[in-house]
Amino acid sequence: MSHDIAKAYQDVLAEIAAAKARRTEVPREAEVTLVAVTKNHDVAAMQTAIAAGAVHVGENRVQEAARKYAEIGAAVKWHIIGHLQTNKVRQAVKFAALIHSVDTLHLAETIDSEAARIGKVQDVLVQVNLAKEDSKSGVYAEDLEDLLFKVDSLPNLRLRGLMCMAPHYEDAEQCRPLFKNMYKIYKKIQEFDYQRANINYLSMGMTNDYQIAVEEGANIVRVGTAIFGPRQY
Questions:
Q1: Is the pLDDT of residue 1 over 70?
Q2: Which residues is 98 bridged to in the sheet?
Q3: Is the pLDDT of residue 154 over 80?
Q4: In angstroms, rounded to a whole number, what is the distance separating the alpha carbons of residues 213 and 179?
């Protein structure tokens, strides 16, 4: 294999540590979880990353995740990071440790009922479309508070925080204001009076911008290409 996945995984961890050391507004010691995004990469590539230390894997598509879960099982924590269709929820809740992409009450209610059916409390993040991009899912910031309290009221969901995606800029530095703003929103919503939520995750940053996201307060980053190389289609 020409691309050294194990070395790349360790390199990303080193970049995360360096980004934490550059933090100015955020506690430098705050932990960051690296989710290795395995979309379009095979089980052998995943096994290499797991052997190198990967504990969290992220999949955009539930069917692909389910197929890989059948081979790998609970050796890792599975994150559903892509847009989740309601007809895929039943499959997702069987194995997802964390669903990053709750963006409507209807989706939240569907996850809640499927989780209840199997006696599970499902950890979820609410996805925020801070840049209001038409091509991306997510609730707008002005509608966030209402959705958070509705999600918190569902007994088989546990709200754990927020997820966002920055626009794809040629210069990743352009993402910084958005990540700064997202961190402020995250700190603000931690103060709300919830029934059962435990808000401690801010998922933001991908291969092209994860270092800036970490500098600005991300504590989950979703990195694929920097670990696995270009996607195999």
A1: no
A2: 79, 123
A3: yes
A4: 6
pLDDT at residue number 103: 97
Mean pLDDT computed over 38-62: 96
pLDDT confidence bin for 82, thresholds 50/70/90 = very high
End-to-end CA distance of the chain: 17
Structure tokens at 45: 């590539």
What separation in angstroms does the CA of 223 have from each of 1, 12, 86, 227? 20, 8, 25, 7
What does pTM read for this prediction?
A: 0.97
Beta carbons of 167 and 118 less than 8 angstroms apart = no
Quick one: what percent of the chain has pLDDT higher than 70? 98
CA–CA gap between residue 147 and residue 139 (Å, rounded): 8
